[in-house]
């Protein structure tokens, strides 16, 4: 009998995690299958407990469930997920314990490294203040980056900056603010990371900023991966900036989750190839 894994989210139709993980399971000869399930936030606890009762091997959580999961009584977050304030990977223990992890930050870090983007000492602007933004800001601050978090609601950005400051080497290097003055901020930045859903399919003509606010020495990383080339990445190319695809983060955070569930190193290059083929189909 196949062991079932899955991703919960709302919406969820855009997810390429099933294709990516099923390719890995098949390549390794594992009798497993991975599905996407639409789960509304108010039903999340019931859905997780139902998956555990049915013997699921593990879960991923995506928008808008990552922060909600941390507050559930059924999940015991590991220290990193608790500090970040969001869970994107759920592991079911043999003794009935359900543990929540966060692999988003590690995925983003590996994506930047693959693109030869320096983290330590860089001035990084993170757009958004949700679960993915939290994970990325915590990870990159821990790796020595200077972080400015921007958000439509400035208060959320300031609150997240205060949380991240607690683990940063120099707390003054972590700031939160609204969207005003974005052009001047980006002119002095080394990296821009979009963690919002702007530009995600089907609303593909939106972006956090345009080419006139970008510059050739900037690296622009959009964690949105569907479409493969978002409007933000097109604007970055027009400005001569380096671009980093969200596919890389999807693959690397997925690989970390795979290892947590199975204890097995997944075929990362195959996972990447599968996602790219699906996006180009």
UniProtKB/TrEMBL annotation:
Domain Shikimate dehydrogenase substrate binding N-terminal residues, every copy: 7-90
Quinate/shikimate 5-dehydrogenase/glutamyl-tRNA reductase domain location: 118-198
Gene behind this protein: aroE
Record: active site: 66 (proton acceptor)
Reactions that this protein is recorded to catalyse: shikimate + NADP(+) = 3-dehydroshikimate + NADPH + H(+)
Protein name as annotated: Shikimate dehydrogenase (NADP(+))
Source organism of this protein record: Methanosarcina baikalica
Annotated positions binding NADP(+): 128-132, 151-156, 223, 246
Pathway in which this enzyme or protein is active: Metabolic intermediate biosynthesis; chorismate biosynthesis; chorismate from D-erythrose 4-phosphate and phosphoenolpyruvate: step 4/7
EC id: 1.1.1.25
């Amino acid at each position: 009998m196949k062991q079932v894994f899955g991703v919960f989210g709302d919406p969820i139709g855009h997810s390429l995690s099933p294709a990516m993980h099923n390719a890995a399971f098949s390549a390794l000869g594992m009798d497993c299958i991975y599905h996407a399930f639409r789960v509304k936030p108010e039903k999340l606890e019931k859905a997780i407990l139902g998956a555990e009762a049915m013997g699921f091997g593990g879960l991923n959580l995506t928008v808008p469930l990552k922060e909600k999961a941390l507050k559930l009584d059924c999940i015991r977050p590991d220290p990193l997920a608790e500090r970040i304030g969001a869970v994107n990977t759920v592991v079911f223990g043999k003794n009935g314990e359900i543990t929540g992890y966060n692999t988003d930050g590690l995925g983003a870090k590996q994506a930047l490294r693959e693109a030869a983007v320096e983290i330590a000492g860089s001035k990084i602007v993170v757009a958004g203040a949700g679960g993915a933004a939290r994970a990325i800001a915590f990870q990159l601050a821990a790796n020595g980056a200077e972080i400015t978090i921007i958000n439509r609601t400035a208060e959320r950005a300031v609150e997240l900056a205060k949380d991240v400051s607690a683990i940063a080497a120099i707390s003054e290097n972590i700031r939160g603010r609204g969207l005003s003055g974005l052009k001047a901020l980006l002119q002095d930045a080394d990296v821009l990371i979009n963690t919002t859903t702007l530009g995600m399919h089907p609303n593909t003509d939106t972006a956090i900023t345009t080419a006139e606010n970008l510059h050739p020495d900037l690296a622009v990383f959009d964690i949105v991966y569907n479409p493969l080339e978002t409007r933000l990445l097109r604007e970055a190319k027009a400005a001569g900036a380096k671009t980093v695809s969200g596919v890389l983060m999807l693959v690397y955070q997925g690989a970390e989750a795979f290892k947590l569930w199975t204890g097995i190193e997944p075929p990362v290059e195959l996972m990447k190839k599968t996602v790219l083929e699906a996006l180009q189909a």
